[in-house]
Amino acid sequence: MLRLRRSTPRRSTLYYYLAARLIVESRNVQRETREISRRARLRKNMANDIQNLSDTEFKNRFRLSKEAFFYLCRVLKEEASLRSSKKISLEHKVLCALSFYATGSYQRIVGMAKYLGQTTVSKYVRQVTDALVTPSILNTFIKFPATRELRNIVKNKFYTKFGIPGVIGCIDGSHFHIFTPKREIEHLFYCRKHFYSLNVQMICDSECRILNVNAKYGGATHDAFIWENSQANRYIQDLNQNNEQVWFLGDSGYPQRPWLMTPITDAAEGTPEAKYTAIHGKARVAIENTFGRLKNRWRCLCKDRTLHYTPERCATIILACSVLHNLALDFMVPDPEEDFINTSSALSLPEESFREHGSRDDLIRGRAIRNMLVHRIDRLHNISN
Global pTM? Predict the structure, then answer.
């Protein structure tokens, strides 16, 4: 008896294609599920690793103490729009930004985190930077002394440390390397040292605390122009108009004014003018040290790590690092043990001696007050000797 063989129905090419697609998609889902679980474990492990870091290692990595870090996170949570997400906590966003500021590189962060890509890290750095320059935070950490009593404290510290009266701040500009800007504006940023930069004006007290930052101008702009058009100029003039005899110290690239004392570059050796200029220079080292300490702690700002952003974004990063600089001072976090970036050579080489073109009356009054200061310093140091 013959058996009839059952024929297998032929399947179309579309059937095999769809079956293969289902198998591939199933494997992709499984792979993605495993990857999500792996990243979740890594995030949890990273949190544990941070907690287990010693204070010394934490400072080496992030340039702040744990105490300062948790305080910063609390401030950002309360005062800014920075928030945690499902993927990452606010604290880890801040750690990503601190690591970038400390090194100027994304590679270390990506390698350390393992679950974050460079694009993601860049996004978190931007978020934290914007949060740090929120007006309420910026104006809390970087501000002039608001009352006469607070200004007297600053004056007394300058006098005790350097023997020069009336000083409530030292002023100077420093060039921060940036990436080549757009062609139509690049001439504004090409400085006399033959690179593209922001010429950032800062004012500090005797403890290297930053009191004011102006990062609006490109490297082609002269220090004196930035000063003449700054809020700091208006601030100190208002104090003088209210009969408060205080002043900033600046190099010979600035105009001599009743509220801004400059050195006497042609003073003969052994004269009261030479003594004044020497003491003036020793006190003004504070602003050079401030720039050096800022760039040494936050290496993204030093000349070996050009900021690869638009000038506006570079200015924001400089402001953010200035906030963190003052925060580190508040918590007495020691400077990193790396080579200190010393910019004090600029003391003898100002950008260019200022050529007087403003109010002749301000210049005459400024020189008269400086002469009084010269003789006062001479008397004070003769008595002390």
Answer: 0.84
